[in-house]
Amino acid sequence: MTEDNKNLVYVSDDIVNTGIGVVIDVQNIYKYFGDLKVLSGISCAIKKGEKVAIIGPSGSGKSTLLRCMNLLEEPTYGEVWLDASIMTPVDSYLHKSILVKSNTYKKSIVAEIKSKLGKDEKEKIKYDDAIKLVDEDTLENLSDKVLTQIKTGDLLKKREGGEFARAVKAYDVRYGVNINKARQRVGMVFQHFNLFNNLTILQNMILSPVQLKLKSKEEATDKALKLLERIGLLDKKDEYPSKLSGGQKQRVAIARALVMDPEVMLFDEPTSALDPEMVGEVLSLIKDLADEGMTMVIVTHEMGFAKEVANRVLFLDGGNIVEENTPEELFNNPKNERLKDFLSKVL
Ligand SMILES: Nc1ncnc2c1ncn2[C@@H]1O[C@H](COP(=O)(O)OP(=O)(O)OP(=O)(O)O)[C@@H](O)[C@H]1O
Ligand SMILES: [Mg+2]
Question: Rounded to the nearest 10 degrees, how much is the dihedral formed by the CA atoms of 112, 117, 120, 121?
Fold first, then answer.
């Protein structure tokens, strides 16, 4: 098998997403930017209450993975689930029940089976007979050639109407959700705060929940003020972001995400744009949230923080999760050579 599909897992719809307490379920996602493959078949499940740190060299795909988790980027292949709802378009290649309805698939399998037969047998075997040889396991053992054939140019989606389209639709109806709604349940904090400079701190904080009609203006304001008080910035509510320090801006950005009552928070290097003396105040806010039970995924270069806060650390390299473990094991007893090399440079 090529590197491309060695991680392929096919999940039938009856076992999909039965993971207990899984908040975000990333299933076999690939992300291409043009020809550049940035994520290469990543699967990971974030459980309720878990704190997962993502580390890895620059360009390894950490931000892209995080952005795929809340659909700021749409994966090229694969699925992202939030609770029991699918956020990405259904990936027909992931579901046996859908895949087997496609003629492209059947023909590819038949061709594959025939290619393994001797000349005499080849002439005898009919399409219907060959189909009977296709069992559940065949799907997991598809050759690179067949997989490529199926995937190339989205043959399934483009060429096959009728039953196949109905299968995809049925799946979508059963599990699918409005992406924008689902996304509101995932809070995101960026390296560069992303506050609106032309709005006051309070206006920044209530903008989304009010616009998206998640909260009335009064409710949102009430919640925002409580959060500002909590982070010690109530007196800044009518200031513009330019009047705040980097650390203060980032704490506001975190509080802004919390106004939406997210189920999970994603942090993308929340401290790497800060002056060193401001890192502590931001990390301590994140740590408080972690201690309160917030589910979080945090991309960070702060290895000490990852050790202290995370239950689990993922090491990404070249668009793959190369190693994953508890912080103790991963930092003290790394197994993968690339991880060892990475740690020797950053620790
Ligand atoms: N929108 C985009 N268009 C084209 N290429 C992109 C885009 N976003 C990211 N990339 C490329 O994808 C690769 C992975 O980028 P990503 O930002 O996910 O890495 P990272 O691990 O977060 O790195 P860093 O530690 O520097 O933040 C890089 O080669 C990057 O240039
Ligand atoms: Mg990044």
Answer: -80
Two structure tokens written together for 286: 């994140």
pTM, full prediction: 0.84
Give the sheet arrangement for strand 77-82, strand by strand.
Answer: 36-47, 22-33, 77-82, 85-86
What pLDDT was estimated at residue 7?
A: 36
Token pair belonging to 206: 């209530």
Which of 341, 179, 187, 339 lies closest to 263 in space, CA to CA?
Answer: 187
Where b means 16+ CB within 10 Å and e means fewer, 263-300 reads: bbbbbbbbbeebeeebbebbbebbeebbeeebbbbbbb
Residue 272 near ligand 1, beta carbon < 6 Å: no
* Nearest CA, atom 27, ligand 1: 58
CA triplet 15, 81, 325: central angle to 5 degrees?
85
How far does the centroid of ligand 1 lie from the alpha carbon of residue 309, in Å? 25
For ligand 1, atom 13, which residue shows the shortest CA distance?
A: 59
Cβ-based neighbours of 200, under 8 Å, separated by 6 or more: 237, 238, 239, 240
Beta strands in 204-311 (DSSP E): 264-268, 295-299
Question: Which pair of tokens denotes residue 320?
Answer: 């793959």
Answer for the pair 236, 249: CB distance below 8 angstroms, yes or no: no
Pairing of strands 36-47, 295-299: unpaired
Which pLDDT tens digit goes with each residue over 41-88?
A: 899 999 999 999 999 999 999 999 999 999 999 998 889 999 888 888
Token pair 């009518």 is at which residue? 238
